[in-house]
Amino acid sequence: MKFLRIIVIAIFISSLQANTDSDIDYKNLAPIQTKPTPDSPTSINNPYIYEPTHRGRYVLTSTGVIVLGTIAGAGILYLMPESATNWNKDDIVNLGKQWRKNVSRAPVVDADDWFLNWITHPYWGAVYYMQTRVAGYSWSESVLYSAFASAFFWEFGIEAFAEIPSWQDLVITPAIGSIFGELFFRATRHIQANQNRLLGSKILGKTSLILMDPIGMVMQDFGLAKLVGISNKNQTQSFMIPISDTRGGVGVRLVLAMQW
């Protein structure tokens, strides 16, 4: 279980008019800046909200996880009945030759089940989108990444070993997936801002986070990000606030916020 701890250290220096310690009104110390804005250095970001310290490295590492997951997913689909995937297993023999044959043809309108076309593919488009969005990139950059991943990781990548790329998957996966992805991103931020709770339940909150970003679970919860030198920039924060008392003394308050 993680906790948020805020440590406050006050360093007070009396003014020239204060001759003795008895002249300092310690009970009435007050911050000189009493209303910090969200952009000021005296505001604390919620340490439960994950923001990686290296966004490029985060995306590169999560992309590696996606590639491995895509290969594993293709293996699972291969084991499924042909009626569910529309893959002709007799054609999946000479993989190199079959792949070149399929990618050299123009994309077609496939006959996949509606669940695959309208649920599964957009879901993974959303997962692709989440990787760059969580890393700190804009929504437009995340849309481009989702389109790139959908096309080259799957349609012209793994799935091309089994069938010709399809127009539905090339369009629906990143288009609808990016809409879902932005909804996932905002929902994730909402849950994290509430200490990983949804409707007051931490189990429901963590389950939702895993479903919306399974790659993020591997990166953040399983510690893969830390293994490659990435940490949460909100986990440890510090700033100083000028303070004063009623007799003109001035000082500094050091605030250290940590999550552990």
From TrEMBL:
Keyword Signal belongs to the record: yes
Protein name: DUF3943 domain-containing protein
Range of residues in the leader sequence: 1-20
InterPro entries: DUF3943
Keywords recorded for this protein, A-Z: Membrane, Signal, Transmembrane, Transmembrane helix
Record-linked Pfam families: DUF3943 (PF13084)
Top-level taxon of the source organism: Bacteria
Chain ranges of the DUF3943 domain: 107-215
TM region(s), chain numbering: 58-79
